[in-house]
Design a protein that fits this description.
single chain, 10 helices
């Protein structure tokens, strides 16, 4: 198995080595991005999508396939972290002593209580206002996850607040699925994948593209937040303690039945 892995790595390296010289130089004025593509984006972004933030329109509409791939990679990274660290089923149902440990103090707890609501509120602002100002799904998802992680750090994982590891997996997968779903809707309508202008909404074509961008941004936010929480929980947990908790729970259940 290890030999196959090395073969795959070497094959990929050889392919990259031979294809890299064919790529255009960085900053090449003759490349498509520097010739006709970028001017079109700059001149037609607002009229095409009723969205003044050029970065948002390029990332989620003109380059929507690329961003879909990035979202899928982020979700896959979280799942890979889960598998590599050996924290898949059965999920722990009973908290361990480590879960009850916190890194905080009364001062930090009070500060977290004050800051977390504003962090989550600002995350929603960054998400929904990303059409008009710097922000979007990746930034909003990061802020949402940061709020949850802050509570976990200050009050311990067994704080009774937030999402557990299984729910984080569902969040990450559902966020990526929402992105795909927007594209599938347009395909079911007989049009191109991720062609937001063909969404079945009683709006102008530009506003339909605007709403489509918002839909995929929400999916990105959910996927990023779920993945970050999942990775934090995997790195914060201890396999030995997880297994001890599962064994103790099984013994307690067996004794209860007897």
């Amino acid at each position: 198995m290890r030999s196959l892995s090395w073969i795959a790595v070497l094959f990929t390296g050889v392919v990259l080595f031979y294809t890299a010289p064919s790529l255009p130089p960085i900053g090449d004025p003759e490349s498509p991005a520097s010739s006709h593509v970028s001017p079109y984006y700059i001149e037609n972004s607002v009229s095409d999508m009723a969205t003044p933030n050029l970065v948002t329109t390029v990332v989620t509409d003109y380059r929507g396939y690329d961003t879909l791939g990035e979202t899928t990679v982020i979700m896959t990274a979280g799942l890979a972290c889960l598998l590599i660290l050996g924290f898949w089923t059965p999920m722990r149902r009973h908290p361990t002593e480590t879960d009850r440990l916190s890194f905080g103090s009364p001062v930090l707890d009070a500060a977290a209580r004050l800051l977390v609501p504003y962090i989550l509120l600002f995350a929603l602002y960054v998400l929904f206002h990303g059409h008009h100002s710097p922000g979007g799904g990746f930034q909003g998802g990061t802020l949402l996850a940061a709020g949850v992680i802050l509570v976990r750090l200050v009050r311990g994982r067994d704080c009774g607040w937030g999402v557990d590891r299984e729910q984080a997996v569902r969040l990450a997968c559902s966020g990526a699925f929402l992105y795909y779903a927007v594209g599938l809707i347009t395909m079911l309508m007989g049009h191109l994948f991720l062609d937001y202008s063909k969404l079945p909404l009683p709006l102008t074509a530009a506003m339909r593209r605007n709403m489509g961008i918002l839909g995929v941004e929400i999916g990105v936010t959910v996927a990023v937040a779920g993945t970050m929480i999942l990775i934090f929980d995997c790195l914060h947990a201890t396999p030995h303690e997880d297994r001890e908790a599962e064994v103790s729970a099984e013994r307690a259940g067996a004794e209860g039945h007897t």
